[in-house]
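Quick one: structure tokens for this chain, please?
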Amino acid sequence: MERLPKYVLPGILGFFVLIILISKSAITIGSGQAGVLYRTFGGGVVTDEGPLGEGFHIVAPWNRVFVYEVRQQELFEKMKVLSSNGLEIQIDASAWFQPKYETLGKLHQEKSEQYVNRILLPAIRSAARSVVGRYTPEQLYSSKRDAIQQEIFTETKMIVDDQYIQLNEILVRDVTLPPTIREAIERKLKQEQAALEYEFRLVTAEKEAERQRIEAKGKADANRILSASLTDKILQDKGIDATLKLSESPNSKVVVVGSGDSGLPLILGNN
């Protein structure tokens, strides 16, 4: 077998080295992701430029790229906190968040890829303890869930805003009280509801009684006015009119004029 030319072997070696370098240098950033470039010989983490966007990139093989999820993410957390009177309350909450895109390099440099556990979770827990500590179990169980949800969001956002984290929402999914406290609150709520229903019935009955009093007074006033306006002369005229109408009836009768009470006509039937 003939020996290969001297330049062939180095060429083959160079080809394989090139393939290795390209494989080390090529990186693809997926959908919803961004990359932070770390220059080994150029000052470390790049913070004065935007992150690497989606798609294919070539970087020097001695540099590194740290890939972050930059889409909105959801974090679930169960927390045990104390109410204003010292009772332990469990809150199930979730946070919607994402890293701030333009400062992704600073997030990596200062907080690292563990920013959720190092920054976001402690901030949520601290805000939850602070907010829930202002309310009683009754308030947390009944009417204040929306309020504490908004307050936890506001206080957490104040903490993480300058930590390169964008907090979009805090959702309080459940508030769990000790069983004895929950049962006592439920009994109290039922009693309050029953009292409100009883008060409503009393108000309704009082309004109906007032309506009947007004109606009776109106009828009495009408009768009094009518009685005052009916003189003997008017009664006689009306009696005569009624007698004349009755006399026109085909039924057999005898009409004696002026023989009734007060001089009114007297009608004698055939019965």
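The chain has a mean pLDDT of 79.
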